[in-house]
C-alpha cells in the first residue's frame, strides 16, 4: 500500500485557508466589535471547525492509501469507518491533469481519473503527485491487461518505469495531431464575447466599500459630487479610464484562462490543454464519447461563434468558475466548429440539410401556457411593488416578461431543426440560447415519444432520448410532427444492426 504525496497535507491546508478566508474576515475583521449572538458564537464555531479540519487533514493522510494490480486501483480511506473501493482500469472514462500555482511552486501536479461508476467513489483523485508518478499512473491505466507484466514489487517497477518516462512522452507527442491553437486575434475576440470585462463591476464595488469610510461627510460629499457632475470633461475622462481598465481586465482574464490552449488527438484519444497560471490537461478516449453538443448563446450567435462539448459517461469536474474541462474552445467560428468535430471524430458528421418544424408547431408553442409567467404575474398582482417610483410598474414588468416568453418561443421555433440518418441523430433547438445535439443510434439507451392534449389536436409529439452520462443525459425535442416521431421510433428499433456492425468491426480488427 502507498500513501499519497506528503505535500497533500499542505495542499489541503491551503485549500482550507482559501475557502475560509472570506468568512474569517467577516467574523474577525468586519464584525469584530459586533455583540450580536450570531457573530459572537460564530467565531467560536469557526475556530473549532478549522481546528477539527486541521486534525482531520493530518490524521487522514496516515489512513488513506492506495495500490494497484494488473487490472484495478484499490483505494482505502476512513477514520472511524474503514472504506475500501476497487475501480477497474476499464471503467476510466476521462483523465484530467490540473497544475495550479501551488503545484508549480513545488514542481508537482494533480491527477483525476473519472469513471462511469455511480456513487461517491466515481473518481480517483490524486490532489498532489509528482509529474513522474503521474505519467506512470497514466501509462498504467492505458496499457491493455494482456500487456501488463507481473508485479512482484510495485515500487521497483515504478522506478524502472520512471526512467523511461521522457522517452515515452516524446514518442507519444509524435503521435498527436494538433487541430486547433487560438491566435492572439481569437483571444481578443473571446475577451469581448465572454464579457470578462464586466469583472470591473464587483471590483469597483469592493473598492467603494474599502474607501467609503475615508470619504468626506455627507454634506461635503454632496457638494463634491455635484462639482464632478458639473465637470463634463472629468466625467468623460473617468468613464474612459473605467472602460480601459475593464477591457484590460477582460483581456488578462481571457489570456490567463485560454492561453496555451491546444486541441489535439491521437488514434484513440482526444486531448485538451489550456491555462497559463493554472494549467489543465484533459484526455478522453474516443470510443467512450456518447455524443456531441454545440451551444450558441445570443451574443455568440451575433458573432457567429459556438462552443463544442464532448459528452461522456463520466462527469468531468472543473474548479471555480473555470470553463468545463470537457469543452472544446468555447469561441470557435461555427464552420470551424463543424470541421473540428469531423476531424476529431470521423464517425460523426454534421448534416447540413435538416427538417424544420411546421406552422402548426408555432401555433402550438404560442398557445401553450407559460406557468412561470403566470406565477410571477400572480406574485406581482399580490405585492404590487413600486419600481422607479412608479406605482404601475408591476404590470409593465408582467408585459415585459410575457414579451420575453413569446420571443423565446418564436426563436425556439425558428432554431429547431432535426434529422436522422443511417446511424446518427441530430437536432438544433432552443430560444435565446440554442443547442445542437449529435449522437449515434448505438449510444442511445432509451427513447420515447409522448403527446399532450394540445399536441394531439395539432398532430404533434415530443421525443426524448437517453444517453449514458453522470447524471443521465436526457434530450427532448418538442412539437415535432407525429409522423416523424413514429419514424424515429422505427429507426431506433433498428439499433441492433449497429451492434452487429460494431461486433464484426472488432472481430475484423
UniProtKB/TrEMBL annotation:
Family matches, as InterPro entries: UCP026631, YdbS-like_PH
Pfam families assigned: bPH_2
YdbS-like PH domain residues: 65-139, 261-342, 413-486
Keyword line: Membrane, Transmembrane, Transmembrane helix
Annotated transmembrane regions: 9-29, 41-63, 192-211, 231-252, 370-387, 393-411
Region described as Disordered: 149-168
PANTHER family: UPF0699 TRANSMEMBRANE PROTEIN YDBS, UPF0699 TRANSMEMBRANE PROTEIN YDBT
UniProt-recorded name of the protein: PH domain-containing protein
Amino acid at each position: 500500500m502507498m500513501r499519497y504525496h506528503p505535500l497533500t497535507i499542505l495542499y489541503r491546508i491551503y485549500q482550507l485557508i482559501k475557502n475560509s478566508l472570506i468568512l474569517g474576515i467577516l467574523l474577525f475583521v468586519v464584525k469584530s466589535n459586533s455583540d450580536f449572538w450570531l457573530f459572537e458564537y460564530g467565531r467560536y464555531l469557526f475556530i473549532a471547525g478549522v481546528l477539527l479540519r486541521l486534525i482531520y487533514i493530518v490524521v487522514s493522510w496516515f489512513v488513506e492509501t492506495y495500490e494497484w494490480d494488473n487490472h484495478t486501483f484499490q483505494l482505502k480511506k476512513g477514520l472511524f469507518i474503514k472504506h475500501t473501493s476497487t475501480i477497474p482500469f476499464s471503467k476510466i472514462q476521462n483523465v484530467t491533469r490540473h497544475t495550479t500555482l501551488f503545484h508549480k511552486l513545488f514542481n508537482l501536479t494533480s491527477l483525476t481519473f473519472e469513471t462511469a461508476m455511480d456513487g461517491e467513489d466515481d473518481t480517483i483523485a490524486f490532489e498532489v503527485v509528482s509529474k513522474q508518478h503521474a505519467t506512470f499512473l497514466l501509462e498504467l491505466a492505458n496499457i491493455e491487461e494482456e500487456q501488463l507484466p507481473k508485479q512482484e514489487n510495485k515500487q521497483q517497477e515504478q522506478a524502472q518505469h520512471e526512467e523511461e518516462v521522457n522517452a515515452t512522452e516524446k514518442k507519444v507527442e509524435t503521435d498527436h495531431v494538433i487541430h486547433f491553437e487560438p491566435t492572439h486575434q481569437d483571444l481578443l475576440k473571446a475577451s469581448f464575447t465572454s464579457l470578462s470585462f464586466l469583472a470591473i463591476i464587483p471590483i469597483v464595488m469592493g473598492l467603494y466599500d474599502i474607501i467609503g469610510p475615508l470619504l468626506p461627510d455627507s454634506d461635503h460629499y454632496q457638494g463634491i459630487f455635484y462639482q464632478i457632475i458639473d465637470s463634463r470633461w472629468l466625467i468623460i475622462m473617468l468613464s474612459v479610464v473605467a472602460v480601459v481598465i475593464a477591457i484590460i481586465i477582460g483581456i488578462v482574464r481571457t489570456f490567463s484562462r485560454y492561453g496555451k490552449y491546444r486541441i489535439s488527438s491521437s488514434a484513440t484519444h482526444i486531448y485538451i490543454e489550456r491555462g497559463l497560471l493554472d494549467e489543465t490537461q484533459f484526455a478522453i478516449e474516443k470510443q467512450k464519447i456518447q455524443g456531441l453538443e454545440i451551444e450558441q448563446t445570443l451574443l455568440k450567435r451575433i458573432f457567429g461563434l459556438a462552443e463544442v462539448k464532448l459528452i461522456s459517461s463520466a462527469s468531468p469536474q472543473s474548479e471555480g468558475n473555470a470553463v468545463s474541462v470537457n469543452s472544446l474552445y468555447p469561441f470557435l467560428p461555427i464552420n470551424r466548429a463543424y470541421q473540428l468535430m469531423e476531424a476529431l471524430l470521423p464517425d460523426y458528421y454534421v448534416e447540413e440539410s435538416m427538417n424544420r418544424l411546421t406552422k402548426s408547431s408555432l401555433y402550438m408553442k404560442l398557445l401553450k401556457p407559460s406557468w412561470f409567467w403566470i406565477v410571477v404575474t400572480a406574485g406581482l398582482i399580490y405585492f404590487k411593488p413600486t419600481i422607479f417610483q412608479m406605482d404601475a410598474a408591476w404590470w409593465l414588468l408582467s408585459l415585459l416578461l410575457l414579451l420575453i416568453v413569446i420571443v423565446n418561443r418564436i426563436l425556439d421555433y425558428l432554431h429547431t431543426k432535426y434529422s436522422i440518418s443511417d446511424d446518427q441523430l441530430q437536432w438544433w433547438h432552443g430560444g435565446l440560447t440554442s443547442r445542437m445535439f449529435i449522437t449515434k443510434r448505438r449510444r442511445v439507451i432509451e427513447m420515447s415519444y409522448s403527446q399532450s392534449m394540445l399536441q394531439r389536436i395539432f398532430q404533434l409529439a415530443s421525443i426524448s432520448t437517453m444517453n449514458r452520462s453522470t447524471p443521465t443525459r436526457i434530450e427532448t425535442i418538442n412539437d415535432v410532427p407525429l409522423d416523424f416521431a413514429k419514424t424515429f421510433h422505427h429507426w431506433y428499433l433498428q439499433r441492433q444492426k449497429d451492434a452487429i456492425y460494431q461486433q464484426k468491426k472488432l472481430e475484423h480488427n
